[in-house]
Amino acid sequence: MFFSSGESEKKGKEVIKNLYYFSENQMLDCNQYIIKDSNSDKLALFDTGNGISLNGLFKGMEKFNLEYQNITKVFLTHEHVDHVLGLYPLFKALKNGPPEIYAYGETAKILEAGKKAQICPDILGINLDLFGIEIFPLNVKNLVNSKEIKLFSEFTFQVYYTPGHSLGSICYYDSNKKILIPGDLVFTGGSFGRYDFPGGSLSTLITSIKNVNNLDVKYLLPGHMGISDQGNQQIALSYRMIQSISSFY
Q1: pLDDT score at 85
Q2: Residue 168 pLDDT more than 60?
């Protein structure tokens, strides 16, 4: 597998006021989302990418007058390397004022342990040395007992535990703005997360998708591929697709 320097600028878009989408780069990366506090310059980041694309995110943010130094909170959707590796260079970049990290269950435990083998199990066949990122223990606020997150003055996210792709997978859902940040649970075009990774389960993934299929979603902001302002239709399509696949097992 080839990994480039990750310096290319991430393409950005303001989805709704104070909510920004930055598309994934190549080389095992993920989409990222920024929420800005309307009353200050504070920022919240959802997922951190693979680390080597972090400068690309910073460059993309500049076009919207968003300064990475103002990132005060980081929310993770799950524990996979393409979503969490960026934490470590981000912490070094913000060493004078590191952000608070929020994650659920297994994701929080893995990051707190700071063990390379847990961040990237050998079974994935990925050599973390290629990323050139130092892994170290982090303090994480575990969302296991949190049903709701009030984020700045305008956003309120409910936390939905949605395993199946991984043991620590969650979705963030704002019912007022009809936003769903599902990580790798569902994608646009009828796609859905892999269930053959450690901690994955097809039957559990189906149940998790069924649960979010009952939500009122306009903006679907997944971890990979594109975003959609027809969230319910996209989630329903993913649910139908995974049900059709499950009939073969």
Answers
A1: 93
A2: yes
CA distance 217 to 43: 23
Question: What are the DSSP calls for the chain, one per residue?
Answer: -------SPPPEEEEETTEEEE---TTT---EEEEE-TTSS-EEEE--TTSTTHHHHHHHHHTTT--GGGEEEEE-S---HHHHTTHHHHHHHTTTSPPEEEE-THHHHHHHHT-HHHHS-GGG---GGGGT--------EE-TT-SEEEETTTEEEEEEE--SS-TT-EEEEETTTTEEE-TTSB-GGG-B--S-STT--HHHHHHHHHHHHTS--SEE--SSS--BS-HHHHHHHHHHHHHHHHTT-
Beta strands 71-75 and 155-161 are unpaired
Q: What is the pLDDT of residue 28?
A: 85
Residue 60 structure tokens:
């993309």
The answer to whether 29 touches 17, Cβ cutoff 8 Å, is no
CATH tag for 158-249 (out of 3.40.50.300, 3.30.470.30, 3.40.50.720, 3.60.15.10): 3.60.15.10
Give 134's pLDDT tier (boundaries 50, 70, 90). confident
**Where are the domains positioned within the chain?**
1-146, 158-249
What tens digit of pLDDT does each residue of 54-86 get?
999 999 999 999 999 999 999 999 999 999 999
Q: How far apart are CA 242 and CA 186, in angstroms?
A: 10
